[in-house]
Amino acid sequence: MTTPTATTAVPDAVIDALQGARRVLVLSGAGMSAESGVPTFRDAQTGLWEAFDPTQLATLEAFQMDPPFVWAWYAWRMQLVGAVDPNAGHVALAALAGLREVTISTQNVDDLHERAGSSVAAHLHGSLFEPRCSECDTPYDGEVELPQEPVERLDPPTCPQCEGDVRPGVVWFGETLPEQAVEVTEAAVEALEPGDVVLVIGTSGLVYPAAGYPAMARAEGATVIEINPHESEISDMCHHVVRGPAAEVLAAIVGALR
């Protein structure tokens, strides 16, 4: 039975669940980053790129056909992400890790959790900030030039191992999710016990396998709590739903737990 609240006030049942939890699994999605001002995938398609379908920018085939064009778009996205700060929700989760055993698995490709001080166990859709070689898959840790304004073409870095083009570290359409990220997340779900808590933050509940993890966690006996200003596809199966911005709700939760 879901117990929703229509305001950013956090119900006692949510605080009680977290006070009694040893483990907290955080599943975060695009809504959490949006609160920091990170453009969504489609919002980033402005100016030079607004006429292009996402599949023309976010596939391996597109990159192989025109690496400088695709890389320029992702470099601009990296610049946009770097220009915003973690919000109070990100900061609260970092603080929560000092109070409970916290595991974070995110669908977001930004680095806001990390910049707030959290350790992220899994980036299910990869990361803008973990580029790798498109040929030999070697991680690239060299310098990445980021444009201060949108540019139509920008040569990607060259892999020092094989001289292949370096690609963004995100998951493109048609690609499988990073095996390690999936394994780590599923292991975290399977490790949950009755009394543990799952916080599902800012997700639509539409994209699998991430959309299936809350139900898996509930089957393990964990209490599933959704934090989202909007109803999602998983709202009905959550034990508790808090309708409000993650920045406000998470800050209130951590304040109550201290």
Summarize the structure.
This protein is of the alpha/beta class. The protein contains 9 helices and 9 strands. The protein has 2 domains: 1-37 and 85-125 and 176-258, TPP-binding domain (Rossmann fold); 39-83 and 129-170, SIR2/SIRT2 'Small Domain'.
> Mind telling me the C-alpha Rg?
19 Å
Low-confidence stretches: 1-7
The second-level CATH architecture of the largest domain is: 3-Layer(aba) Sandwich
Distance between the termini: 28 Å
Task: Give the helix/strand class.
Answer: alpha/beta
Overall 3D form: elongated
Total domain count: 2
The major sheet is characterized as: 7 strands, parallel
CATH homology superfamily of the largest domain:
TPP-binding domain
Order of strands across the main sheet: 1-9-8-7-2-3-4
- Number of DSSP strands? 9
- Strand fraction equals 15-25%
Count of individual helical segments: 9
- Helicity level, as a percent range? 25-40%
> Could you give the order of the helices and strands?
EHEHHHHEHEEEHEHEEH
Specify the CATH class of the largest domain.
Answer: Alpha Beta
Q: Mean pLDDT, rounded to whole units? A: 92
CATH third-level topology of the largest domain: Rossmann fold
Give structural notes.
This protein has 258 residues and is of the alpha/beta class. The protein has two domains: 1-37 and 85-125 and 176-258, Rossmann fold (3-Layer(aba) Sandwich); 39-83 and 129-170, SIR2/SIRT2 'Small Domain' (2-Layer Sandwich). Helices cover 31% and strands 17% of the residues. It contains nine helices and nine strands. A seven-stranded parallel sheet has the order 1-9-8-7-2-3-4, sandwiched between helices. It has a two-stranded antiparallel sheet with strand order 5-6. Strand 7 (197-201), helix 8 and strand 8 (223-227) form a beta-alpha-beta unit. Helix 5 runs parallel beside helix 9 (246-257). The chain is elongated, with a radius of gyration of 19 Å. The two termini are 28 Å apart. The relative contact order is 0.22.
